[in-house]
Sequence to fold (545 residues):
Amino acid sequence: MMYNRLIMKHKLKLSILAVELIIATLIFGALMTIVNSFTGYREFKQELENLYGDITIQLAKTGASYIHVDSIPYWIKHEPDEEWEETNKKLDTLTNTSDLAYIYVSVISPDYKKRTYVFDTVNQLSLEAGSKVIPFGTVSSLEDKDEEYINNLKLVIEEGKNYTSFTYKGEGGHVTTALPLFGTDGKVTAIMSIVKPMNEIKEHRRNFLRSIIISATILTLLFIALYAFLLYMGIIRPILFVTYETSHLAEHHGELTGLLKKIRHRNEIGKLANSVEKMSRDMNKYIEDLTHATAEKERLGAELNVAKQIQSEMLPRVFPPYKDHPEIELYASMTPAKEVGGDFYDFYMLDDDHFAMVVGDVSGKGVPAALFMVITKTLLKDTAAHEHNPAKVFEHVNKILCESNESGLFVTCWMGILTISTGELNFANAGHNAPVLENNGKIEYLSTKPNLMLAAMDGLPYTNNTIKLNKGDRLFIYTDGITEATNDYDELYGEDRLLSVLKSVQGTGKTSRDILDIVRNDLNDFVLEAPQFDDITMLCMIYKE
Fold:
């Protein structure tokens, strides 16, 4: 009786739903034909571009191997010599044997407004068609090039990366690949560009579009026929049953009428009916589990807050640190990106005349990084207690960390040991950011060739460096959470801005705490509402009278 009432109640709805589904199926079939054709063509085009891109990159690398890059500046200042002639012949041969349109090597001016041609080889067929070889030393303007073209040049010169672009015309197209040419100094000296025609692309494209449209149309018609058959076999009516029961479920606090038991289908509709019945049975249990999960989350949050407090208490927090040594004015801070972090700082007196400072950054974030930070910080302090050479300290700590580093974590670290009576500062850098030093009225990065980070590889040697600090000099040590902080426009805070802020307080008599506050305020003004993705640690030490 209930089944018959439901059928009478939804008779009008059944007719409307059937018409709407048939119309929707026809529209969907037409759209699917278009989408399949477009998607297939896009994949075809991508594969073709990948093929041509790989070929041109290999050819560019082959051409680059012919060139002695360090000779390019000499050729530009003087005249082509026998080496240039021999190289030009090789490039010309490569151009013709590889069916390239042309190869040219050029030097870009620092302002990206001019280019000077070093080599230009043109395929014989292109020469017959009217193309000309650009003579050596020819200077052409780049001011008429668009922004994308200039950005591609910057990608090659400033980042040392390749780029490949495709140009399509009515009869085909061509692919252009640019490759950086590095000198022995590791810098990009020139750019090699090769251009290869894609003459066969038009025929490939026509044949592919014809085949994909035909196949997509056939598949779409088969789909419509199959879908109409499913509608006829009773898809619509079971859907109405499920719709009615889900409405009843929502209105009667999880109770069902039993109508879903009449659905005998073993397809997705049958599974949906079973799922609705199961949902009714599990509703109260789900609410109970959700309540328990919420309480557990609150407990974990409370434990993480305790861990954050413990980590904070492990770092020195008394400032100024040593009343008996007024020569050392110091302030430091660490702000984790999560509840706990992997950054750390530390400072301690090794004896009456030696003062150690450490700033480190563990890879990763959260609890694993915090635990690794505790181990590293403890090892550094214990080792420095009987070894006043920072490089030796790093070598010993690195050996211990590598012995049981199954998690694969590592630590960048900077450590300095100051002889208070003389101002001599011995320091070592294990892959860390260079500190900023104010010395003799100059403020600049204390750049040295950094060694590999700790826990990366066992048995590594570390380099000890020495400088002389004068009274009034100051040292600012930090982690990359400052320089790599980004704002809402994905712009980096950067080393230049940090250096500019530190220069602005030169000669103002600011304390080390004032300096950290100024840097942090400037960083906040830069990032605004952008989230903090990395731990931020700073330490400023002033060597006073």
Summary: The longest helix spans residues 11-65. DSSP finds 13 helices and 16 strands in the chain. The CA atoms of residues 428 and 464 lie 5 Å apart.
